[in-house]
Predict the structure.
Amino acid sequence: MTKNISQKKPLLFVVQQHHATHMHWDFRLEMDDVLVSWAIPKGPSTDPQTKRLSFRVEDHVYGYKDFEGIIPGNDYGSGKVIIWDRGEYLPLGRYSQQNLHQTWLDSGKLEFELKGQKLKGGWNLIRTSKRLYGEDTWLLIKKKDQYASTGEIVHDLPNSVVSGKTIAEITARDGVFRLGDYK
Ligand code: MN
């Protein structure tokens, strides 16, 4: 048995359901102190047969992992947000934790383990060669393991892992996003 003596701090992932112009789930992986982010129109699927189209979107500041509430305004990003899942993740394969962007993300083939309350086990996030709708397009795919299952987890388990609320139950009292509040 080899002993893991690394001092790596755990990395965080968060999935925020976001009812903007269109409902989607924002999948975010901590890398180099920011949250690298993908918008997934149908949300993650725990069925390895189901590849979920994921659009890379702008990185978010690390503190945004705690945001749940309403994003005010009338632009495409406005609307309600819940923390649908959150936990640690472990990148797999070769990488440097000090520079995940260059040593891991840029490969376009991300293999990782999720330790969330809902999403668990092995996953792949693979950049496609196509740019659908002019976007940086990836596919999120569950690996076959004991955490794989059929069904639609985003609908079967709709509640926030923080407040217990569904996205429909969110009001301004849960929080109002202001630029600069999250770092
Ligand atoms: Mn979003």
